[in-house]
Specification:
Helix content: 25-40%
Distance between the termini: 45 Å
Bound molecules: S-adenosyl-L-homocysteine, FE3-S4 cluster
Shape: globular
Structural class: alpha/beta
Radius of gyration: 22 Å
Number of strands: 19
Mean pLDDT: 96
Strand order of the largest sheet: 2-1-3-4-5-6
Strand content: 15-25%
Length: 432
Amino acid sequence: MNGKKLYIETYGCQMNEYDSDRIRNALSFELTDNPADADVIIVNTCAIREKADQKAFSSLGRFKHLKAKRPDVIIGIAGCVAQLYGDKIIEKMPYVDLVIGPRAIPKLPKLITEIQSDQRKKIETSFDVEEVFEIEPYHEEGKVTAFVSIQQGCNKMCTYCIVPHVRGKEINRPLEDILQEIRRLVQKGVKEVTLIGQTVNSWKTDRYRFGDLLRIAAEIEGLLRIRFTTSYPRDVTRKMIDAMREVSKVCHHIHLPVQSGSNRVLARMKRTYTREWYIETVNRLRDAIPDIAISTDIIVGFPGETEEDFHDTMKLLEEVQFDSAFSFKFSPRPGTPAADFPDRVDDNTASRRLKELQEFQRKITLEKNMSRVGLVEEVLVEGRSKHNDGFLSGRTPHNRIVNFPGPQELIGKIVNVKITEGFQNSLRGELY
Ligand code: SAH
Ligand code: F3S
């Protein structure tokens, strides 16, 4: 701690949350929730859809007058929007001092010191940073869950996706590094880790594959649960399924984005599998692990998506019965092939399809949640419930949130909870 204060705003995925915690550790400033108090302001941004990057710019815009009043304050933009637009950001917003891409976080302390001494703006968006995993994230005391990054970037080439452009090629973190981070977290009281990567199950080193990592990580004493996200369908292997089935610490939940149920659309997305192949993968998972929960991501209104293609997606949702799904309207991203595809679906049609799909999936999710009523679930207690005094909150292995009355001494423990009610986004229960 050096008396300086950091204000940080985070948008986007788990990887960005993780990176914001790394930024916090890299700078070791005191955190403030008031930007007017801060010496350094960082907006950690997401570029996955157009709306996300607009948010980044409007968020930065709020700090313009602050810089006018206090020229010493350093205003930085980090993350995927920083990587995507680079120096153009400073052209448009001259009060920004620092633009830093996701790979360059380890360079942040040096860049801040330089800005303080030479008062010049810094733009760091190169990919050839040697130690991409070097800085581990800040961990809040008492928190029983944590993310652990095992992979940076992505080697797939989905035609709509900006991630490989802004996060670079896949780099897999060495096994020993991952284990060390988990051990340190467990020493701080963490009971559950979520291994994160863009295609987490494609993780590999010379000797090990993802299934091995699950088994080896599970040997860490004191660690109670392991989750991982996001899985790429083509990288679901026998070895991975066996590890999920045989290693009791690995939660029976997989987030497995399908994106579309139409083979024509899947081909244009370059997802490298067909609808039949995806369903077969789901069947392999369910045969091996009958109680597995499966969630997914869907894009509607991809260029060229016809009413028939959309119905194929709806039929797939009906057939697979996902536990939950995130769904989005296609958003053209600069530099991706799909941004130049002809036959854009008009916005009204895309909105209508999204609404129809979300209403349909909401019912399935609710039914699935209600079907838990009467069952006894193992819940890792994460903390007090936000909405209800005297209630605790935790998650089942399937990743459902459960609220139930109980004493706070149970935080960090796995307890049996009998489910009494099922809602759209959570369950309620009582200690069993
Ligand atoms: N592998 C990643 C996927 C990143 S993006 C992960 O870790 O989650 C998350 C989801 O956003 C994707 O699965 C996809 O459904 C959606 N998405 C990505 N690019 C998109 C775009 N251009 N328009 C709309 N949705 C998009
Ligand atoms: Fe994006 Fe496809 Fe990779 S969705 S993150 S390019 S697997």
